[in-house]
Amino acid sequence: MLTRKQIDFYHESGYLGVDGVLSADEVAELRRITDEFVQLSASVSEHTDVFDLEPGHTPEAPKLRRLKEPVSQHEVYQRFLNHPRILDIAEQLVGPGVRTNGNKLNMKSPEYGSPVEWHQDWAFYPHTNDDLLAVGVCMDDMLYENGCLLVIPGSHKGPVYSHHQDGRFAGAVTEEVPDADKAVPIELEAGGISIHHVRTLHASAKNVSTRPRRLLLYQYCAVDAWHLQGYPDWQAYADSVLRGEPCNRPRLADVPVQMPMPEALRGGSIYETQTILEKPVFARAA
Ligand SMILES: O=C(O)CCC(=O)C(=O)O
Fold first, then answer.
1. In a mutational test of the pocket of ligand 1, which residue from 125, 156, 202, 281 has the highest number of ligand atoms less than 8 Å from its CB?
2. Which structural domain range is residue 183 located in?
3. Is 65 in the pocket of ligand 1 (CB under 6 A)?
4. 38 dihedral zone (left: phi>0; alpha: psi -120 to 50; beta)
């Protein structure tokens, strides 16, 4: 469980790093399953609904950038989504009650792992209120050198910046990123978790080290935060509730929203969407 000080820090700064949430055995289990998926990705040569590939991927040297919706791919990822320690923490920050609104496993392999440009998750999935966060489960030590998450403290209390270019959603902030010089790295040992608020400006650089950086991202939110694009039916919403009761009275907060529409020119993953950026910061530096 988080201390009062950690909870206050999260609300004030819009992020938090927590060491030692998973045991070494749990991390080993996640790595083992993930290695199997990397091997499986050798059988494809283009992005699929499951695999997002790094440029240069070949069957002989598979380079997997993202496993999409890992929770739907393997029971182990599903189990960790419901890990009591992680849920306790998420509930302390968005609860009582907690539901999930997505998951992904981003892998930055040694020496080429792709960067992610500055963005706010809120621009991708605005809800009726902003009690949403992403937990990053570190499957490796996550350090500056291997492309740890970078966050701009306090940015979750500020505006939602334009993620549009030429009138279409572009998956990254397309104006000058304010306070980029104040960005801080979230560095953690394997088994630790990063937490960032849905409106916190964040990014990550290319992995220039010889060590992998695999980050399993679970999105959690308040039970009464409803996606503004809705749900196909009640069950689709109710199935997302992990703790507490489903609630058909969304809480409406006064939050700035720009829908991620008209749709991006390229979809499939944030990496693909961001390839059209005219002024990338990290891709240019890489
Ligand atoms: O994997 C990362 O470094 C950042 C991931 C991220 O922000 C995202 O996928 O939305």
1. 202
2. 4-285
3. no
4. alpha
